[in-house]
Amino acid sequence: MNKRTFADFRQNLLHYGRLRLRLADWHRRAAVFSRAGEPDALRRIYVINLDRRPDRWRRVRGELDRFRDRHGERLSAVTRRFSAVDARYTQATPDPATLVPRFTLADQLTVEPNPLLRIDAATRAREIMMTRQEVAVALSHIEVWKLIASGDVPSALVLEDDIFMAYGFARGLDATWSSLDRSASGEPDFDLLYLAFEEVGNVDPVRNGASTRRLQEPGIWEASGYVLSRAGAQKLLDHLPVYGPVDLWLNMQFSHMRAYTAARPLIAQRIDEPSSNSYSILPILSQVGVITREKPLVPATKHLPGPVVAVGSPGSGLTALATALSMLGYTCCSDLDGLPAAEEQALLRGGRRRLFNAYVNIGSLSPEALHQIVGANPSARIIVTSTDLTLPRKVGDRALLFTHEAKDRWALLSDFLGVDYPSFPYPTDVDLGMRIRRPRALLQSARNAMDLKHDTSPWIATPGRIEWDGITISAEPPRHTLTAHVDWTSGGKLNDEVWKLRDDTFPSNMALFTPANVSQHGAHARLTLRPEQTPVRELTSGAIASRAVYRYGKFSAELRPPGVTGVVTGMFLHRNGPRQEIDIEFLGKDTTKMLVNVFYNPGPEGTKLEYGYRGTPTLIDLGFDAAHDFHTYGIDWQPGAIRWLVDGSVVHERVAWDPTPIPNQSLQFNINLWHSRSKEFAGDLATDRLPTSAHIRSVAIHENVTKGDQSDRRPF
């Protein structure tokens, strides 16, 4: 398992030091390797590499070619590239005889014990589904095992394509190899030898002076660099199916294999090569309270060519293309009859003070305008999604024909733009068509508002000195509003089929949610935060969440938050993968204000874009103290706008790109009470005022769906 996601400054600095230090190692003769037939030699290297990442193949081949074998030949002479299984094209359900794509929290703890968690009935029952990336990685390794088991060499080094050889690699490997027991023919006698590894469990320490260590118990992460013998490969195949991530499952095989590690890691993974893997265990460890660090995650994209302008006929995939460009890191404005005047003039004249760097399906961008854009912007790119459009001759090789017939759209798009091939499925949005812009109306009932510090991301507009109030779109024809999915009022019982009581947490929450902290007393429900020692937290609290997810509608609750410093009362809509969120929060340090917030990340369901720590928060003056009495707070979420209401009056509104796009994925409705790890955000906890409670008197949810269509209302 690669934990580079949480690498801090010191770890990054140490990593880059190791990268530089390896170049000072002048011992480049790795006598272990030979492509001749010597029985004591390592005669094959397999590098697992995706077809769409030739850059990684070139780099790892260059890394290997820093070394020579015992006869002076470069190591590429014994290297074979293995075309990795791509997560985009793996079957949703792999062959169960080969791979079972699930494991348990107890399996994880068997390899990496945690003092905050125990292996018990609860962790054995906590099932975790592997991500598509983890499935693809495991299937790739299994296929390489088959090659080794049926191959013509007694053993092979298996490498993933994001590795480097640490300082002392050649000498360390020679010492490791020579210390292994030998068979009668002189071949090293082992099944599995780790050269890249991280000790995380209760493995025996390496004895002083020893060059290898025998593995008897689980406790080793990584499968990025290991030597596997022909007999060892067959043993692994005989014990299929793999269940869980491949590095976890390998730990479970130590009891019936001769498995070793080198005395120290001789191969390491690169931090400077962003991992395209998605780790299924990380959200679970966050939910149970083990992961307590959360930091802003901002896309680290290289310079993107642009501006990009995309045109095409209705129904030719323009909306999906806009989403795809957003997923690549573009700030993309799309599906409008025209641009705001200042933005369009800056685009036509090649001005730098543009808010956007991609424009898709904009009605005012005629062929003449495209000619002007290309002339004024030397790095402009034009994308055409249908063959019935004629482009100006000046566009030349800066244009891409991008139609439905393209077999691999990501490959075509990323090659054209010179960006990395993404690790997510290409979006399938239905075309929205050109929506009509209109002037933004003055909100008569708006309250005083103050924007707080925002995240920085491609999906947050940063106007600078340009006057900007978002993009207002004419209301769509009214959709049929179903009868309230949820209509709970005081005196009624919270329906278990509609609501679930949360029993988890998140990294910045200093309390653990437990069902015991949700109670009903007479006229209202109560969420209570109290001092209570648990293995992962010193506080417990209450939270409720809808079992269904919703897409657009009106969400309200009549509640009274506590006015206790350090305590946050939340009423919000939320999802991960991609992360989108619409918030109302009350900070106990000042309950005369209401904090509203939006997090936006683009992509279809399952896209692991979850950038953002602060979001785009705004403080709204209420004109009263919310902690003194009950009031009704609401979120009216529509495709073109979000409105926040207090006692039926709209007090704040955001339209598209004010400063984010409007969330467009199905979200879960939540109400919770928690203590923030951030003192800047919530203040110091007033422990002398605990326990404290948030009181709820009613909840109502009205979802907007077309009559007969409830496809978005899937269980969360």
TrEMBL record:
Enzymatic class: hydrolase
Protein keywords: Glycosidase, Hydrolase, Transferase
Top-level taxon: Bacteria
EC number: 3.2.1.73
SUPFAM superfamilies from the UniProt entry: Concanavalin A-like lectins/glucanases (SSF49899)
GO MF assignments: licheninase activity; transferase activity
Reactions catalysed: Hydrolysis of (1->4)-beta-D-glucosidic linkages in beta-D-glucans containing (1->3)- and (1->4)-bonds
Keyword Hydrolase recorded: yes
Residue positions of the active site: E581 (nucleophile), E585 (proton donor)
Gene3D superfamilies reported for this sequence: 2.60.120.200
UniProt keyword annotation of Transferase present: yes
Coiled-coil region: none
Domain GH16 intervals: 466-716
GO BP, one annotated term: carbohydrate metabolic process
PANTHER family listed in its UniProt record: XYLOGLUCAN ENDOTRANSGLUCOSYLASE/HYDROLASE PROTEIN 8-RELATED
Family designation: Belongs to the glycosyl hydrolase 16 family.
This protein's name: Beta-glucanase
Naturally occurring in which organism (per UniProt): Sphaerisporangium siamense
